[in-house]
Structures are given as structure tokens and as C-alpha cells.
Amino acid sequence: MGERPTIDGPRRRAWLAMALTAALLGSGCLGPSALRATRMKYNEAIRVTNDEQLLMNIVRLRYADSPIFIDLPSITSQFEIAGTLGFLGGWGNQYPAASYLGNGEVTGRDSPTLSFRPREGKDVSRILLTPISAELLSVVNAGANLEQLFLTTIDDVNDVPNAPQATVMVPRTPGRNDEYVRGIRLLADLFQGGAVELKIGSQVEEAGASDPVTTTDLGGDDLLNAAQAGYVYRHRGEGRYSLLKRDKGLVLKFRPGFADSPEALEFERVFRLRPGLNGYRVKSDLMENALDAPRALDEGEETIYLHMRSILQILLFLSKGVCVPAEHVEGRIAPMTLDADGRPYDWTRVTAGNFFVRSSRRRPRNAEIAVHYRDYWFYIPRDDVNSRSILAIIEILVSLEDSESHGAVAPMLTLPVGL
User: Cα separation of 413 and 419, whole Å?
Assistant: First the structure.
């Protein structure tokens, strides 16, 4: 028997190319491989660009410039692969050497299509200008930092101000929130220590009580119908009952043994609450009938009234944490507020310890998020966890507000970026 010829280098490479082509075309593994290779890259790119867009708009607002939001509602990516293969020769010496070589070709294409939608018109009005709901504060139970959430989203608690001037684009007077920050830090410590909890609970509105009725006027159907409609009868003494509205709302509740602690009593003093209670209702000032409810100012509130901010006010407040370069302050490129001594007021003090954006002429090496604006780099370092987590909170709040939108979709700009 004749000895089988060995396959030399050129023919070996040709065989390998044809085998690879056949494997790619016949295995059906392109889709899963493309998913593994691209999904997390898109995920990370969206996260980074969302953070950069948010930081850029915060910096713009510090300069009294217009914020612009462009959404990316969809990404469509098409993967294609094609190949050809052939073999012109055989074994033996009867063919020229070149005829032993096969030929193969593999081509691939990735064609992503990005759809951009500028947020404008009613979109901006509804999401950016409408005060957020107090019930959104319950996200602290999902891991949000209570101090940061109360610092950024609330203008005042029971008329204790949180630097409301900081939510003005060009403030004329300085804003302070020292007492407010002290109060929410006490609350944050109580929350971290397991002394209090924020939850959605059932509340009975005493202010809207009906005139008392006697038990002879009540029947089983009355009690059942009241319960089904969200009402409840409460005993008023001497066999008389009043019909009250039962609503679900946010409740701040002290766990047993903590209501009379020094921290709790100081928290209640700061925010003018009636001391020693086991719990307090939490309401927004903009809720229906909130301002008409009886308020026992002499003994302290039984309700925590919150003046909630809109997303735009939150971003304006955070913009005061941007470190403006000295030349921009001196050149009045950025709005400047004078203190009582006639010197430029340092607005970063209202967000100190929670949010701070640094600035540099050169691109920083240790930046987690950085944007270039007005010839400077504005950035948050990798080790500034507090500032980064506030951006995450705002992203969550914007997403929650945006999820309620069911209106018409604005025009989209679709860009095919495949080559």
C-alpha cells in the first residue's frame, strides 16, 4: 500500500480555514456568542453615558444654562456572518502543487441601530417640573440612603428649611440648612440603628369625620359598604359613631423602646413634632386637604409635613455642589451670590458630605464620571461613594417618574452605525 502523503503548511492552513467556515455556518452558535460578547458592553455603555448626561446637566444648571435630556429608548443590533469554501485538488502527485490548496472566506458584520429621543414639551413639564410623591421616600427600604434622599428631595419639613434658595437658578441670597441637616442625620442614625421604619400604612383622616350617628342607625350593610368604599366607623362614646376616610399613606413608626430615646426626642424637637409618640403620618404639603388639616402647633405636630421638590429643583440643588473654577467666579461666567460680608458665598456647603463635583483644567485620571464643559473637566472621583450614590438615587427617581408616562411618543432620531 502506498504511503499517504503528509499535508504541508499551506494545505494545512487551507483545511483549517475551511473547517472553521463550516463550523461557523453550521453550528448555529452565532446568536448566543454575539449576545455574550455584546450585551454587557451595551449595558455598561448605557450606564456610563446616563451618568455623564446627568452630571453634565447638573453642571449646566450651575452655570444657569439649559439642561438637555436625550433618551435612548431602543438599540437594535444585527449580526451577520457569511462564508464560502472550496477545494480544488486531491491526494497524490498528479496535480500541480497549487491544486492541493483549498480556498475559504468568512465575512461578518455588526450593524447596531441607535434610536435617540430628545425629552421635550410635556415630557419635560411632567417629569422635571412636577413635585415628586412623598411615597417615593419608601425607597429607603430598598437600600437608598435616607440622609441623602431627604437632603436632595425635600425643601422643608414642618417649615424647617433645607436651603430653599439653593433650588433657584440664580439665587440672590445665601441658603443654609444646618438645623435641617442635623435633624435628618438624627433620623438617619435612628433608621440605621433599627429604631424607626418608613412604610406604607393605613391612615384614618380625623379631619373629614362625619357627624356622629347612634348604633340604632347602623346596620351590618352600612359597615360592609363603608369598608368596601375605604371608610371606617369610629366610636365617639355614648354609643355614637363617626364615619372616617381610611387612606393608605407613608408612616414613620418607632419600634418599641425607642420613642423616648434622646435621639428620638431631639429629632422631634428639631422638626417640631409632638414628643414621645410611637409614630407619625408623613404627608406632602401638596396633598389634598393637607394644609387644611388641624395642626396643634402648641403641643407639636402629629404629622410630618414635607414640601417635596421636583426633579428640576433636585438638580438645581445638586448643582450648588459643583466646584466652580475661580476664574469663572471672578469673570461672572457662573452665577455668584454674596454673603453678609460681600464675599462670594460658597454654595457647596449646603451639600457638604453628600455631593461634591470637582473641577480641573486637565482630564482627571481618577475620575469615575467626568464631563468637559467651558474648557474645564468636572468630575466625581472613584472613591467618592456618596456623590456617586446620589446620582444613582436621582436615576431611580427619574425612572420611577418616567414609568408613569403613557402619552404620545416624541419623534426619534435613528442612527445606523454599522460599517
Answer: 19
Torsion (CA) 206, 212, 215, 217 in degrees, nearest 10 = -120
Distance CA 124, CA 133 (A): 17
pLDDT in tens, 316-345: 999 999 999 999 998 999 999 999 888 999
- Alpha-carbon gap, residue 403 to 419, rounded angstroms: 34
DSSP for 169-217, written as a single string: SS-SS----HHHHHHHHHHHHHHHTTSEEEEEEEEEEGGGPPPPEEGGG
Q: Are 130 and 122 in contact (CB under 8 A)?
A: no
Determine the angle formed by the axes of helices 311-319 and 146-153, rounding to 10 degrees. Answer: 100
Per the structure, how many domains does the chain have?
2
How far is Cα of residue 22 from the mean position of the Cα atoms in its chain? 48
Determine, yes or no, domain membership for 355: no
Give the number of other Cβ atoms within 10 Å of residue 60's Cβ: 19
Distance CA 290, CA 283 (A): 7
41 in any annotated domain: yes
pTM: 0.75
Phi, psi of 178 (to 5 degrees): -60, -45
* Euclidean distance between CA atoms 377 and 204, whole angstroms: 53
pLDDT one-digit tens code per residue, 192-220: 999 999 887 655 555 545 556 666 666 65
Alpha-carbon gap, residue 349 to 347, rounded angstroms: 5
Is 278 exposed, middle or buried, given 0-12, 13-18 or 19+ CB atoms closer than 10 A? exposed
Cβ neighbours, 10 Å, residue 234: 14
Please, what sign has the CA dihedral across residues 48, 49, 51, 52?
A: positive
Q: In one letter, which amino acid is 111?
A: S
Q: Do residue 178 and residue 280 come from a single domain?
A: yes
Confidence band for 371, pLDDT divided at 50, 70 and 90 = very high
- What is the extent of the structural domain holding 213? 174-307
